[in-house]
């Protein structure tokens, strides 16, 4: 376990040096597995849309960033999800709050549920497990304030879902 934490410490120190105008790194939450690592920090752009791929677990997140001159999309996680939900942000709208639950479903560690709230009061989610799905909740995350400008974390190489997630925020 200490080798996983030390490699994450190195990784996040390296990431932090690449961030533009990001004052707060929040997380990671979940299980820090040795699977693939993702880092979507937008490099000075803002988030204009997101797609959440989920079943009993949040399996993937796709983030579209827009700059004055161009847009680009980053995606992590699996592709075989029964539900895909899209978040389209309006002009001058950004995500200010993120909340969720991590734990286990069917023996797999992952992000069980996630919700996003914007500066205009719109709520997206919760995405992930619903009533009737047997899960073991192991922890919660909640962040309110600032502007979401990116996400990072790990995925599982076994079931291709997200096993941990963290967030980049900057002041509004």
TrEMBL record:
Residues 23-171 form the Jacalin-type lectin domain. Coiled coil: none annotated. This is Jacalin-type lectin domain-containing protein. The keyword Ligase does not apply. InterPro entries: Jacalin-like_lectin_dom, Jacalin-like_lectin_dom_sf. PROSITE patterns: JACALIN_LECTIN. GO terms for molecular function: carbohydrate binding. Pfam families: Jacalin. The lineage of its organism: Eukaryota, Viridiplantae, Streptophyta, Embryophyta, Tracheophyta. It comes from Zostera marina. Keywords: Lectin.
